[in-house]
From TrEMBL:
PROSITE patterns: DM10 (PS51336). It comes from Graphocephala atropunctata. This is DM10 domain-containing protein. One of its GO terms (biological process) is cilium-dependent cell motility. Keywords: Cell projection, Cytoplasm, Cytoskeleton, Repeat. Its main location: cytoplasm. InterPro entries: DM10_dom (IPR006602), EFHC1/EFHC2/EFHB (IPR040193). It is found in: Cytoplasm, Cytoskeleton, Cilium axoneme. GO terms for molecular function: alpha-tubulin binding.
Length: 564
C-alpha cells in the first residue's frame, strides 16, 4: 500500500477520528516571529516515518563549494558615515571681489572690495567675509550670513558644482567675481571631476593704491611696552618716597607728603601725611593715580589748552624712576617736592635693578621740644584709682581693662587663711575670721565665723576687693599679695589688724609650685605648720620609704662587711 498513488479511493483514513485541527508551525515570541517543529499531526495524531522529525539534513561538507573553487575573499564593508559627519569642519574658500559705486567722493568713483566666499560642505551653506582694512571708513567683516543662497528665481540653491574660478555669481543682488581659491578647494574640485579655470589675481582698490605713498610722521611718544607683561611682573610693587612741599616763602609752612610710583604702569599719586592739630582739612589724595608729564607746559603754541586736555601724543616725556632721587626736587603740577627719604624696598629696587644707590635720609624738620605728659589728677575717692585715670582719657569713661591671661590661668583658684583680730578691746579676743585671697583678680574677702555667745553676728566682714597696704600712695596704691599672708603676719584691713593663725593645704601646695614668689623662711614656716596639723603625714611616710629603698639600711651594710 505504500506504492499506491495519493488519489481519492486509494487512501485509507481512520473513520474513528473526530478531530482534524492542524498544528501551526509559526508563532510569535517576545515580539519576533519564530518557527517550530510540529510534534503531532492532524488532530494530534502521531507523525509517521515520513514526517520531518525523521528528516536528516545532507552533510554540508559534501556540497561546500570552497573545497573545489577555493575560499572567496571577504571585503571589509566600510562604516557608514552621514553626510554632515563626513564633511564636518570642511569648507571651500574662494577669493573674490565686487565693485561698489561711490557717488559722493571726488577722489574715487568706485571701490573694489575683496572678500572670501566660504562654502561649508556639511550643510551646503555659504557665507561671505571681508578682511578688515585699517581706516577703511565703512563696515567690514561678515557681509552675508551663513545660509543657503538661492540661485535665481528657480527656487534652487547654490551648490559647490556652481562655483568655479573666473566666473561671476550673484548673491542677493551683488555680483561677485571669483578670482582664485585655496589648495584644499582646488584638490576637492579636481577630485570631483570639476575642471578649474585659470587662476586670477585679485585687483586692488585704486584709491588705496593712491594712498600708499603717504607716510606717517614719527611719533613723539616711545613705543608702548607690553602692558600685560608689566602687570604680571610689577603688580603691587610700588616705590615710596617721603617728600615735603615747602611754602614758607609764600606765607605757608612745610607740609609732608608721600609720593607713590607704581611700576606696573608708571603712574604716580601723592598722599598727604595727616598730623594732629595741624589746622588743615584732611584730604585723602593731593594727586590721584595718573601718569605725570615731566614738563607739563611743553605743548604746541596752537594747542587749545583752554578747552582740550592734553593726550599722550602731546606729552614728550613722563616721570621715570630715575627722576626720583633722595635730595632732588621734582616739579609735579607746578609744585616743588623735596624728596628727603624712601622706604627699604625702594632702596633695594634702585640698588639691584637700576644700579643706583639712594643717598641717606635728609633731616628737613626742626626738632620740636617734646612736652611732658600732663600729670594725672589725684584719686577722687569714688571707685578705684583706675576709674579716675579712665575719666581723664575721654568724656565717657570706659571700664579699665582686666588681666585676662591671669584670670584664665588662675580661674577658680583661692587661698584660704584663718585669722584672729589683734584685739584692743577684750570682747574682740574670741572672734575668729577667715581670709580668702582670689588668685584670678587679687581680691581679698574677709568673713567672720560664728562663735557661740560672742555677741557678734557671723557673716561678711569685708567684701571682695583689692586691699591696699597702709601708708601706700592713694593714687598708686600697693595691694596685698600672697607673699604678705604668712602664719603669724599682721594684715591691716582699714585699721583693723588681723593676725594669720593658719592656712589650708592648698596654700602650701601653691607655695611649693611658685617658690619664686615667697621667701624660704615663709615656705619652711608654712611646712612646719602643716606638719603640726598632721596634713603631711602621708607625704613624710612616703618620702621615708623612698629613701630606704634607694639608699639602703646602714645596719645591713655593716653586717655584710663583718661577714666578709
Amino acid at each position: 500500500m505504500e506504492g499506491l498513488p495519493l488519489l481519492p479511493g486509494y487512501s485509507f483514513k481512520d473513520v474513528t477520528q473526530s478531530k482534524f485541527n492542524i498544528p501551526h508551525h509559526f508563532d510569535v515570541k517576545n515580539g519576533y516571529a519564530v518557527s517550530r517543529k510540529p510534534e503531532f499531526g492532524i488532530g494530534k495524531t502521531p507523525l509517521d516515518v515520513n514526517s520531518i522529525n525523521y528528516h536528516q539534513a545532507i552533510d554540508p561538507i559534501r556540497f561546500d563549494p570552497s573545497l573545489i573553487y577555493g575560499r572567496s575573499k571577504s571585503y571589509k564593508i566600510p562604516t557608514f558615515k552621514p553626510h554632515f559627519v563626513l564633511y564636518d569642519k570642511q569648507c571651500l574658500t574662494f577669493r573674490a571681489f565686487f565693485k561698489q559705486s561711490v557717488a559722493e567722493s571726488p577722489d574715487e568713483h568706485f571701490r573694489i572690495r575683496q572678500v572670501n566666499i566660504l562654502y561649508f560642505l556639511e550643510d551646503d551653506t555659504i557665507t561671505v567675509m571681508e578682511p578688515p582694512i585699517k581706516n577703511a571708513g565703512y563696515d567690514q567683516g561678515r557681509l552675508v550670513r551663513r545660509a543657503k543662497i538661492p540661485k535665481g528665481a528657480s527656487g534652487q540653491f547654490l551648490h559647490w558644482k556652481d562655483l568655479n574660478v573666473g566666473i561671476d555669481i550673484v548673491m542677493y543682488g551683488i555680483t561677485y567675481h571669483i578670482c582664485n581659491c585655496d589648495e584644499f578647494t582646488e584638490e576637492f574640485l579636481l577630485s570631483q571631476g570639476v575642471e578649474l579655470n585659470a587662476m586670477e589675481e585679485v585687483p586692488k582698490d585704486p584709491y588705496l593704491l593712491s594712498r600708499e605713498g603717504f607716510s606717517v610722521g614719527p611719533s613723539k611718544v616711545s613705543p608702548v611696552d607690553d602692558k600685560l607683561r608689566r602687570f604680571l611682573e610689577y603688580d603691587r610693587k610700588v616705590l615710596r618716597f617721603y617728600a615735603v612741599w615747602d611754602q614758607r616763602d609764600q606765607g605757608g609752612d612745610m607740609r609732608p607728603y608721600v609720593i607713590h610710583y607704581f611700576l606696573a604702569d608708571d603712574s604716580v599719586d601723592i598722599s598727604e601725611v595727616k598730623t594732629a592739630n595741624s589746622g588743615y582739612d584732611s584730604f585723602p589724595k593731593l594727586l590721584n593715580k595718573m601718569k605725570v608729564p615731566k614738563n607739563w607746559k611743553d605743548v604746541p603754541l596752537d594747542y587749545p589748552s583752554i578747552f582740550l586736555e592734553r593726550s599722550a601724543e602731546e606729552v614728550t616725556e613722563y616721570y621715570q624712576p630715575k627722576d626720583f632721587i633722595v635730595g632732588n626736587t621734582v616739579f609735579i603740577m607746578a609744585r616743588k617736592f623735596l624728596i628727603y627719604d624712601c622706604d627699604p624696598f625702594t632702596r633695594k629696587y634702585y640698588s639691584h635693578c637700576l644700579k643706583i644707590e639712594q643717598p641717606s635720609a635728609i633731616s628737613v624738620f626742626e626738632d620740636k621740644p617734646t612736652l611732658p605728659p600732663p600729670p594725672l589728677p589725684p584719686h577722687i575717692g569714688i571707685g578705684a584709682p583706675e576709674d579716675t585715670v579712665q575719666s581723664c582719657f575721654s568724656f565717657q569713661p570706659k571700664p579699665p581693662k582686666k588681666d585676662v591671661l591671669r584670670y584664665v590661668i588662675n580661674a577658680g583658684k583661692k587661698l584660704r587663711y584663718t585669722a584672729m583680730m589683734d584685739w584692743v578691746h577684750p570682747e574682740d579676743k574670741e572672734r575668729q575670721f577667715t581670709i580668702e585671697y582670689n588668685l584670678a583678680n587679687g581680691e581679698v574677702l574677709v568673713q567672720e565665723l560664728k562663735v557661740p555667745n560672742s555677741g557678734f553676728i557671723a557673716g561678711r566682714f569685708l567684701k571682695a576687693m583689692c586691699l591696699s597696704k597702709p601708708g601706700s600712695d592713694p593714687d598708686n596704691p600697693e595691694f596685698y599679695t600672697p607673699a604678705d599672708f604668712n602664719v603669724g603676719s599682721i594684715v591691716n584691713v582699714f585699721g583693723h589688724r588681723f593676725r594669720i593663725t593658719g592656712a589650708d593645704l592648698a596654700v602650701y601646695r601653691y607655695m611649693e609650685a611658685n617658690p619664686e614668689k615667697f621667701t624660704s623662711e615663709a615656705v619652711h614656716s608654712m611646712r612646719a605648720h602643716m606638719v603640726r596639723l598632721g596634713l603631711l603625714n602621708e607625704e613624710i611616710k612616703d618620702r621615708a620609704e623612698f629613701d630606704l629603698r634607694h639608699q639602703g639600711c646602714p645596719q645591713t651594710d655593716c653586717l655584710q662587711t663583718s661577714s666578709v
